[in-house]
Write a structure and sequence with these properties.
single chain, 653 residues, alpha+beta, 6-stranded mixed sheet, elongated
Amino acid sequence: MVAPSRRLTRCVLLVLVCMLLTSAVFPSALIAASHENPDESKEVFSGIALLRYYSEALDLVLQKDEAGVEYKLGKMPFTNVPSHLKEVTGDFASSGIELSCRVVSIDEHLDELRVLLSQSRIDDAAELADRIPEELSLSYGILGALERDVEVSSEGLKIASPDSGSSLSVAYNEVQDRLNRIEKMLNRYQNIFADLLLRLEALGEVNLLPTVVTLVVEPDVAFVGDEIEFYGVLSSAVEPMAERTIDILVNGTEYISVVTDVSGHYCGMMRLPYEYDPQVSLQALYYPVERDKGMYISSASQMVEMDVLFYQSWLELSVEEEAHPGLEFEVEGRFDYQGSPSSGERDIEVYLDDVMIGVEAVSDEFSVKVMMPPEVEVGKHTVSISVLPYERYAPVLISVPVRVVWVVPAVTLDIPSRAVVPGVIMVVGKISSDFGSVSDTKVEIKLGKSSVSVVSDEDGVFAAEIKMNVGLWLLGAQPLSVGVFPSQPWCSPVLVSEKIILLNAVTCGGMLIMLVALVLLMRRKFGADPNVRRLVDVVDVIPASSSSVHLNAASVPSVQLDDSPRGKILKCYLWSAKLIQSVTRVFIKPQQTLREFFCEVEPLLGPAAGFFRQLTSLAERMLYSKYQPTDGDVSCGEQLYQDIDREIKSEDL
């Protein structure tokens, strides 16, 4: 039957072990943030937002912002709308984009028609006037499709009444207002066209005198930038027209003007524009101005086609696969003129996507370094090299992909692996990278609920002291996190974490006091256990401090250190303890158990520690159990003593 004191001792030890295990886990454990299951999440849709999106797109149509309409309505298929509205919103987007293009085209054609009529260019004006009615008709049809799409959308949104005053009804009325304004704009275009058409008919009814203009160009083949000669005659019926202005058009655009002489002849020199097209069209144009208005009809010469020569070049380009924000990257290239003479030095412009980031003057083979903008986003980009035209040499444009990435700095920490709380922990570290020191970097250090911020020096070194407050835990591993936020644009933020084993001195001290109090209470209530007395007696054999240790079997009255197997084993332990004390200068204290003494000297024994651990366990078995040792146990104890003696001498402790 187990004694009451022994049962109580076991219960107390069990409670203490449970407290130690539970308190080893810090209460500041991180709680994972909850996320909504995407399969169970509800779609969020607002009919008011959809109708206002319609209104904003129609506003851009009224502003004749063709690019804005295409950009805004181009995103419509990706918006979050219910399935029964997806088709109608898609139709609205395509119709809105088409109507925007039609409106811009009608507006431009009406302006062009005004100019042709002001120049009395009846034939050209009539040709253009034939196209405008069709464009107006198509625009009215597209507007009707938009109105139907809006009606279908309102039915899908279940708008009870446009006059209900609700936010949904107000948004619907805003869309209708835009549609009405677009209809008024088309009506205005219709009226303007009708007025211009009347002016065209009036010009046709007036008895205007026809004119004829000719054009001759020499030579018919030339390099870009070369001067060419042109000449011709302007006449009306059979008489020449003196002192009239003749416009020379290049590819339909006015390029140079000359005045006829008294005989209606004109001539001049012009330089071929640096447009680097293999062919160019030239035409002479006369239209009546001032005193000639209402008397003559404008005229244009036949098109004169010229072959244009220029040197073409090809560029082989290579850039680094990876670049970093705020750092230079290298661009290498080589020009190939394929038989044409070399141009020598060329000016190039370097673009990142559509933003120019550098201008350089380079030779046929070049290698230049260009600074990557610090504010560029990491990811895939395009580097383009635009070679500017140079006299007879055509421009070149070539693009290559590049990936912009951050440099991940290396962080080395010098921190203790163990610490006692409360106290101060010194954290020393260094930040470095392959591109130089990471100086003036903000460093945030956190340990539990304590935190501190410092800035690294010019070599990337930082040091900080962080305090750890007392908690209810006893012992545990706490993560020390160090966040590095570099000021250099090419470096990315870094978070490193190291674990520190923390011992709570206050809580452990209190627990030890409680344990001692419980033991004293048990001894007072139940008396000393024989096994405890035997342990104390054996410990007393080994003095706590002495320069020379004397072990005498006669000083152990409660343990018979005779020639019995138990006595022989205990003698082996005492001899080993004496040997260990003499070489380590660590002595058994009166309050220590055999196991506590072993734990204290274990780090000093080296390979002998394993043998002393086995011998300690064997001695505890002899003291604290009723086990009857055998001759084999005696041999084991003697062998362990010899092994300890051998290892200690070989280690020269």
